[in-house]
Design a protein that fits this description.
By secondary structure, the protein is α+β, with helices and mostly antiparallel strands.
Length: 630
């Protein structure tokens, strides 16, 4: 993809990285002229729902964060089949490269880098994001010394209820936590454990656990104790060692519970202060020292008091009282002036963030603009939220921000686009199973085809390789074979049934009777649908009309007892000739509850053959007997 223009905006100039999920390019934003980093999902995963979900989770996680120690998201979208994220471009090296080049880092430098990693994590955790893959390879060191945390590709929204298969044990084995090694879910303290491992590596120049295979390393995370830092780097302050080892506690409850606390202890260790001051619940009473205490402290006697001394002291106190009162009044006036000014300034320059979730993006932008709030839209595919609807915002509703600040809007771009697979020439069952795996709703339509095997797909809508979504209705047309309808006129019913069977057709289950004045025509076929010589699918029904001569009609009358008086009864009576597959419907009627329970019924026998008569009430057979025949 070198020198390719992506989405008519980003010119990809060189590949700068490759991971298991995506390829990263340096690119130029043609609109701004700035260098950016474009992460493109690897082509082999364009149809893999699990990797698409991870890629989209990275975008969603990044959209919730704006921080100077995080590689910030600038854009997200699709170009054809290519899913991409646009991030700020960091010119520099990974922390892993720095460690490999320099070996162990000084305690001061390692501590400062760790503080910046923790600052990024504190921001992510406050926004409900767990990184789950903190490692030196994901820490970028800018040429000017800035530290940026990158690659939220397997990050998890902390309140998400689902994880795709394999997500629990993600991250790099040298840096992941014991709970991740056990296959459990990761949380904020898992990121803190990984940060402790990174700090250990910066201080010593090596990872705490290593082995011949990933399983061996994972087992060490669970059970082993690392080589003491002092053995590898004696110059590291003991307080900084304690911070590192507390972060790497195997029990999450014994680690730092927040990134902020760990960062505070690192600062204290670097400044040679107590880790974090512990204040008593109630301050001690402060007593004024007595003269005897002053003498013992200074070794001098207190000056004896006289009336003159008392008068002079009183005047001095009065003068100081006037001076202090005046100074206090001036201070209060100045403070009040600046306080009121700051309050007014705060009122006029800050604003509550309105809720725009559920609004069309244009309406959301209009509402934010009225409040003098800037906005940036980040689009995500969603099967649940309609296109162009805002489903998340950062900062959230009712947070106080300054006018001119930016609110990140997560906007649905509708269902993800898919490439329609080719199912032509596949068996209809295999094709249906494949399409349902994509999430499509499939309609199967049989068509006449003499060239394709029966039940083979001969065409499809939409056609192969067309861009669709899971909501797109899909129709597949299967071969129903092909045969020609024979001429059946003047045949008996039995002869017609046999001829249709020979042509892979079947007789319709309802006969139409046509009265005739010719006794010779009684029982003969007078009409058919479809007509003769028409091409139809195999196993199609052919409906027949049959002559009936009034004096030769074989009527059969009997009485049916309806089963229940509490509900309507659907009565249906059928006839099936011996050695025939066809069960003709001869009578059908629904009797309401107020009808007599015994009802007379008369049915017509189609011809002189022997028939089995079945009586159905509400779909169940209640009687069966034979009638007719020679």
């Amino acid at each position: 993809m070198k020198e390719k223009i992506l989405a008519n905006r980003y010119r990809l100039t060189e590949q700068i990285g490759m991971g298991g999920m995506a390829i990263v390019y340096r690119a130029v934003d043609l609109r701004t002229g700035h260098n950016v980093a474009v992460k493109v999902l690897r082509p082999e995963y364009n149809e893999d729902s699990e990797f698409i979900s991870r890629f989209q989770r990275e975008a969603e996680a990044a959209s919730k964060m704006t921080h100077h120690n995080i590689v910030n998201l600038l854009d997200v979208g699709m170009d054809g089949e290519n899913r991409y994220l646009v991030m700020e471009y960091v010119q520099g090296k990974t922390l892993k490269t720095v460690i490999q080049e320099r070996g162990k880092l000084s305690p001061a430098l390692a501590g400062q880098i760790a503080i910046r990693i923790l600052s990024a994590l504190e921001h992510a955790h406050r926004n409900g994001i767990v990184h789950r893959d903190i490692k030196p390879q994901n820490i970028l060191v800018h040429a000017d010394g800035h530290i940026k945390v990158a690659d939220f590709g397997i990050a998890r929204i902390a309140n998400s209820s689902t994880l795709t298969k394999g997500d629990n044990v993600m991250g790099s084995v040298h840096y992941f936590s014991p709970e991740q090694a056990r296959g459990e879910g990761a949380n904020a303290t898992s990121d803190i454990y990984s940060t402790g491992v990174v700090l250990y590596e910066m201080l010593t120049g090596r990872v705490p656990y290593d082995g011949d295979n990933p399983v061996a390393v994972a087992m060490q995370h669970l059970h082993a104790t690392p080589v003491p830092i002092q053995n590898l780097a004696p110059d590291v302050p003991p307080a900084l060692v304690r911070v590192c080892m507390k972060a790497m506690e195997k029990n999450p409850a014994l680690r730092y519970q927040t990134a902020r606390d760990m960062a505070a202890d690192i600062r204290a260790a670097l400044e040679n202060r107590p880790e974090r001051p512990v204040y008593p619940e109630k301050e001690l009473d402060v007593q004024q020292p007595k003269p005897q205490m002053i003498r013992e402290e200074t070794g001098r006697q207190p000056i004896s008091d006289t009336g003159r001394n008392r008068n002079q002291a009183a005047r001095r106190r009065k003068i100081w009282t006037v001076i202090m009162t005046t100074a206090l009044g001036i201070a209060l006036g100045v403070g009040l002036f600046f306080g009121i000014t700051a309050l007014i300034n705060n009122i006029y320059t800050t604003v509550y963030v309105p809720s725009v979730i559920g609004l069309d993006v244009k309406d959301a932008e209009e509402l934010l603009s009225k409040e003098d709030i800037n906005f940036k839209e980040v689009y995500f595919n969603s099967d649940e939220v309609k296109a162009n609807i805002v489903f998340s915002q950062n900062p959230e509703e009712r947070e106080i921000i300054r006018k001119g600040d930016t609110v990140i809007l997560s906007v649905s771009s509708g269902p993800a686009q898919l490439t329609m697979p080719n199912v032509v020439d596949m068996n209809v069952d295999e094709a249906t199973e494949l399409l349902k795996r994509y999430g499509f709703t499939v309609t199967i339509l049989p068509v006449i085809s003499g060239d394709a095997t029966v039940n083979t797909v001969v065409s499809q809508t939409p056609v192969a390789n067309e861009k669709v979504t899971k909501d797109t209705p899909v129709s597949i047309y299967k071969s129903g074979g092909k045969t020609t309808v024979p001429l059946l006129k003047n045949l008996t019913l039995a002869e017609a049934e046999e001829l249709l069977k020979q042509n892979d057709l079947r007789i319709g289950t309802t006969l139409t009777y046509v009265d005739t004045r010719s006794a010779k025509e009684h029982g003969k076929i007078t009409g058919q649908t479809p007509a003769e010589n028409l091409e139809v699918m195999l196993d199609s029904e052919v409906s027949l009309s049959i002559y009936r001569y009034p004096t030769d009609r074989a009527d059969y009358s009997f009485e049916v007892t309806l089963n229940t008086a509490e509900a309507d009864v659907a009565l249906r009576i059928t006839l099936q000739a011996d050695e025939s597959a066809v069960e003709f419907e001869s009578f059908s009627h629904t009797y309401p509850t107020d009808m007599e329970r015994k009802q007379p019924v008369t049915i017509n026998l189609p011809d002189a053959r022997h028939y089995t008569c079945r009586v159905y009430q509400n779909g169940e057979v209640t009687e069966e007997f034979g009638i007719g025949g020679q």
